[in-house]
Amino acid sequence: MKEITVTGTNGTCRIELNRPDCGNLVSTGMVQGLTLALQSIADDVKLVVISGKGADFCKGRDYETAPESAAGGRAPSALSIRAQMTGPMMTLYTALRELPVATLSVVRGSAYGFGCALAGACDMTLASETARFRLPEMGRGLPPTLAMSALWDRIAPRTIGYLVYSTAELSARDALATGLAHSVVPDGELEARAATLVETICKEPLDAIKAVKEYLKEAPSMPPAARGGFGASLFAGVLSSR
Amino acid sequence: MKEITVTGTNGTCRIELNRPDCGNLVSTGMVQGLTLALQSIADDVKLVVISGKGADFCKGRDYETAPESAAGGRAPSALSIRAQMTGPMMTLYTALRELPVATLSVVRGSAYGFGCALAGACDMTLASETARFRLPEMGRGLPPTLAMSALWDRIAPRTIGYLVYSTAELSARDALATGLAHSVVPDGELEARAATLVETICKEPLDAIKAVKEYLKEAPSMPPAARGGFGASLFAGVLSSR
Amino acid sequence: MKEITVTGTNGTCRIELNRPDCGNLVSTGMVQGLTLALQSIADDVKLVVISGKGADFCKGRDYETAPESAAGGRAPSALSIRAQMTGPMMTLYTALRELPVATLSVVRGSAYGFGCALAGACDMTLASETARFRLPEMGRGLPPTLAMSALWDRIAPRTIGYLVYSTAELSARDALATGLAHSVVPDGELEARAATLVETICKEPLDAIKAVKEYLKEAPSMPPAARGGFGASLFAGVLSSR
Question: Closest approach of chain C CAs to the CA of B64, in angstroms?
């Protein structure tokens, strides 16, 4: 059984983590599979939806197969960490951020560690009432600075600091208050509400979806005074091309 | 009857959209009228208050008179869009942002599209309990990237992305949680609470109001390390000049 | 009795404002004492905890001893304001921001003016249910632009503007919604909950705590594209050095 399943219909590409027995813990291979799925979306896709099969979105990295566990008691070198772990993850986060279309995470159960960063790295997050978000890495003595980079610009930096140092769990309601989730729905309605949101977005024209995404991607690195003109140009570009 | 009414008393300039029959939909002429009102405030004004007459703050642009509707089936050129629509809007947003004194939006009913951007572009927003905020443009196939620029730095970028793609409506309480509204009051108390806030601000000295506004305007484009010295200089400038 | 008490145990440095009779109003001398305490922490400290003795965290600056009150009716010069007030405060805020380890404010009662800025300048804030936050300076005609600089990047700029102009008081719950507080607990449980959080953090390794803090300090001034690589490097640096 494949650990990442990808299906496409009507302008939507659905990517599902598929290791439900262990809460969708991800190996480096799965991180690479996610990247490949993102890099392979069809030209007519408007929206990528990421979810996890079963009770949890993603409980984090699979430490049993993690490169730092395989060094036989010796610390791995910085370069081997990059080659085997942080490199593939950075490539994934970059692919997700650079995707020219909209991205949505649909979260049920635990979104921990890498799972929390993956959910937050999407443009939008829909969560079920019992979803929970957490960055537990410091409890294992690991600084989750790469996950922090994925969440940066997504939720307030000071909130990221608190989540990391305290290792506290955020309920779905707390996640809503911090902006990590955008909508919280009853557990039994998660799929139906996700379908409605997907349908809404897939009725929007592809050129407008791409213009909005380009704005979201580029505005953060622009001087404030340039943001108005950029927004006006994107709008005029779409409208004048129809 | 004028579509924009401007009244000034005791250090306050009140600008009211005055097309209550259609929820204060704005034409390009009204956008220019708003800009002119902002550019014409008296030297002793401390606070500009923007509101809408009747049940709604502003339901958005008036598409019947919009330039893109007037091209007889042909797409308007990028330059004509700029001349007739995005140009005047950018000028308004810039005038609002550059105003040397405080700005307050008082929102009742719908703040949709341009209305949502206008409310959020003010320094402060007071909303009644049944106010609602929405960016519905993508439902018409238009990317509201110019409205996004007005809201940038005001609410979290990721929240802007969600509002745009989902076209979801925010209740006043939701708007409070995202920072789009700062205070939510019962419908019947909106005017009284606005009057109290206006009175508080108009007791503050003009030099201090301007120093605070200068900080709000300039700090976003400063390197983090320079923000402390800038804040200290503004404070000392005011205090040593009395 | 000393106005600042400093105690250290098990990787924690506790700094307590100790003027409970006046709600821990701070003089310039106390600001300098806080700075000295921060600059003198032991090499093995992982966490600095700042609190106020008695019913309040800190009600603000002590205006009776403030330099601007001592000029005998004449406005003080900008340079004397810098020497006697803004200079020492900037040094404190910089020391707090530059500290290589985690910082936590534990807030009971009033955190007003300087007290509000001090609480927010820490990486994390734990508040009791009846804590209240306020920037009342404009009610005295003073622009709190230096306090604004301490809160910048900590809470949303637009929220800072509202707090300053309106001089409104935030309840602990409101502070939670704006990100000024991270956790709100019943009054009777504040010490116990603070102790649990301190214990959690002090079990984390010092190298990981420092790596996370370095990320929090440096990421804001980095171009967005560089933040991933920086996070990956910090992680690899820690892991490969064990």
Answer: 34
